[in-house]
Amino acid sequence: MMKIILTILAITVSPVSLLAHGVHSSVEEGGPAVVIRIRYGDGSPFSYEQYEVFGPGDDVPFMNGRSDANGRVLFAPDRDGEWRVRFFSHDGHGGERIVPFSAIARSGDHADPASDRLLRLTAGLGYLTGIFGIALFFLRRTTARTGEAE
């Protein structure tokens, strides 16, 4: 009888059951917005569950709502700092994620139209120079052959 009780206790407190009860989150980088993907311990999405987003040093939520069908929370911070995202479900699952945000660090993802134009112009001039060089090479080569034939 004691073995049965110990076996049941071991299964109940095993790390696998603890992982199944937990909630995990990850942050997807890129652009001016922040995307947090939230999943239960078993890998299923934290779908349509509540969340709150707090700005740096704020006690009042910047925004709140529900995650989408894929367990994602999306928000666009209006200032730099550490943003706090709390997520929770009606059955007691939940967690919190701190997201450091820097608009300057993320601004490198977007190309400046003026620099893009300069890059295209430089590339175009390089292509034309290359084509002109190849044409001169073949022209000189054929001129050298006709000079040898005479």
Give a structural overview.
It comes from Leptonema illini. With 150 residues, the chain is α+β, with helices and mostly antiparallel strands. The chain folds into two domains: 2-109, Macroglobulin (MG2) domain (Immunoglobulin-like), CATH 2.60.40.1930; 112-150. The protein has four helices and seven strands, in the order ααβββββββαα. It has helices at residues 2-12, 15-21, 103-106, 113-149, and strands at 23-28, 34-40, 50-54, 63-66, 72-75, 81-88, 94-101. The strands form two sheets. Strands 4-3-6-7 form a four-stranded antiparallel sheet. β6 (81-88) and β7 form a beta hairpin. The radius of gyration is 30 Å and the shape is elongated. 10% of the residues are buried. The model is unreliable at 12-20 (pLDDT under 50).
Determine Rg (CA atoms, Å): 30 Å
CATH hierarchy: architecture of the largest domain: Sandwich
Class of secondary structure makeup? alpha+beta
Strand order of the largest sheet: 4-3-6-7
Protein name: ABC transporter permease
Transmembrane segments: 118-139
Signal peptide: 1-19
Keywords: Membrane, Signal, Transmembrane, Transmembrane helix
What is the topology?
Blueprint: H1 2-12, H2 15-21, E1 23-28, E2 34-40, E3 50-54, E4 63-66, E5 72-75, E6 81-88, E7 94-101, H3 103-106, H4 113-149
Antiparallel strand pairs: 1-2, 2-5, 3-4, 3-6, 6-7
Descriptive labels:
four-stranded antiparallel β-sheet; Immunoglobulin-like; single chain; 2 domains; 150 residues; alpha+beta; three-stranded antiparallel β-sheet
